[in-house]
Amino acid sequence: MRLVIRQDYDAVSYHVAKYVKERIKEFAPTANNPFVLGLPTGSSPVGVYRNLVKFHQNGELSFKHIVTFNMDEYVGLPRDHPESYHSFMWKHLFKHVDILPENVHILDGNAKDLDLECHRFEEKIDAVGGIELFLGGIGPDGHIAFNEPGSSLNSRTRVKTLAYETIVANARFFDNDITKVPNLALTVGVGTVMDAREVCVIITGAHKALALAKCIEEGVNHMWTVSAIQLHPRGMVVCDEDATLELHVKTVNYFKSIEKVHEQLIGSDNVGLQGGVRSWRGVEATYHQ
Ligand SMILES: N[C@@H]1[C@@H](O)[C@H](O)[C@@H](COP(=O)(O)O)O[C@@H]1O
What is its EC number (predicted)? Predict the structure, then answer.
């Protein structure tokens, strides 16, 4: 896997957004062969979405042939509640770009049969041929989507009870009142995320430093579900300097040096892209996998 370290949140956001844009452009999606993108909510991806909107406004990126699947949604929160993930996605991304509403997939946390809703979500992902690139964020306890500590690393989309720590962390969006935070959610599984052909996780802030260290320096462990990315053939974590606080200096230096060498070989604009793989297959394989 790759660890890309950038100075701060803004630099991380720009890097990830540019990467997503380049991947989409390279894929050259069409109506019959859309680019399928998995998306997270939370504060981590807001800056990425801001940049993607800018790219769209500059005419550099169209969402016409992009199909999206969101990671998760609260159970029981009305769809138009300002803190529903449905509202979040339209507010921060979808309403600013040319995505076709029928190409947006967000779990319905008010479905009559929640298990069926989850099952259908997986079927819809399969029907479009799987997810090309899954973007993710993590909670301070290393959970990806709502796959709380102890979740099966093979899990699929399902109903989850939220950990107390997650409820506390998310209370900031609910007037800092933990009683207002839903305690159930629908979430893609760790297996659903890891089935994507590429996974990119954004980790920023000192409060996520321990989770980053567990993800990068320790073994695959269901108590830090993001660590499953270690098994992915094309996994990338993009973090800021603050998030590296618990990493060994040698780990940070290692990933920085490897990125530098790689950039010298294929240029910073191509880092990680398929074009890079084609031109420098051996180098890219060593670097990425
Ligand atoms: N279900 C979401 C996760 O998908 C998200 O990654 C996490 C972190 O949020 P933030 O990016 O705001 O720290 O929050 C929630 O738990």
Answer: 3.5.99.6
